[in-house]
Design brief:
mainly alpha; single chain; elongated
């Protein structure tokens, strides 16, 4: 009987840890997504930069960084 209680308590504790970890990951992901949306919308409204222009610039970062280090 006591071994079953230990297993139950351990499984509840592990479940609680996994739930807390999952909650933190989801919260961080939602916060990051919201920040990205705010930045993109701000750039679009204030400067007229489209999301496609921003994405193209992000995709060209490796080339830009390589050119900086090649000089």
């Amino acid at each position: 009987m006591p071994i079953n209680l230990i297993v139950l308590v351990s499984s509840l504790f592990i479940t609680w840890l996994v739930f807390n970890w999952t909650t933190k990951v989801v919260k961080t992901s939602v916060t990051t997504a919201f920040m990205i949306i705010v930045i993109v919308m701000t750039l679009q409204i204030t400067l007229g930069i489209s999301p496609q222009q921003l994405w193209n610039q992000i995709l060209s970062f490796p080339k830009i960084i390589q050119e900086v280090f090649d000089k």
